[in-house]
Amino acid sequence: MRQPAVAGQFYPLRPENLEKELKQCFEGLEIRERNVLGAICPHAGYVYSGKVAAHVYAALPKADTYVIFGPNHTGYGSPVSVSTDTWKTPLGSLEVDRELADGLSGSIIDLDELGHRYEHSIEVQLPFLQYRFDQDFMILPICLGMQDEETAVEVGNLVAELASKSGKKLAFIASSDFTHYEPANVAREIDNEVIGAILNLDIPGIYDKLYRRNASVCGYGPIAAMLTASKRLGANRAELLKYSNSGDVSGDTSAVVGYAAIIVE
């Protein structure tokens, strides 16, 4: 059982308080399922980025399995790892799609729990999925410590191939924040360039912007893996639903973190 690592920190520990906060995140949003194959969601504390993330989850369709790509912030575990443990949150337990996870055996993606044990980037997405869809789905959590373009594209292709063979309905979620600890105007300028490449579904362009602007986007590998998988399954457009930064909540615009909600159809 993979126990919650950041309940009580990034989001409330008590189920009733968590549901209340999630309800507030969705306030003013219409729940309208779209033909979303992939998405980018932030993974900061809900008070900062929850309302941004809710824009994606309000548009996300029901799927059999949600593949969640997250960056490895901790440095623990394999370079690229999939978890097969049951994941517990304050809202209940979620099963990993073992059929898909076992299908990754022998690839560059290791079956490894250590990379997931203390990592928050995937965990914070799960209560949003539970709030929208109860427990009626499975997950495939993939943590990327190696985020170079070649690795990310290979991971995306592997998962897309499995998805095609399985016949299941899948959706791919990349967990990523954008620019870290720059003044708000600088963060927005850098993020606009990176987001521009994302909206063009241009993976080499994303890496070029990251390099040229020295952009501190933490989940660029998950973004590239998600785009690769989504494109393989027919996605041909992306849309920015919401952009904000931590300063919009805290009032401190001198050093912010950027957050974007993006869907791929």
TrEMBL record:
SUPFAM superfamilies: LigB-like. Signal peptide: none annotated. It holds the Pfam family Memo. InterPro entries: MEMO1_fam. Belongs to the MEMO1 family. This is MEMO1 family protein AOB57_005365. It comes from Methanosarcina flavescens.
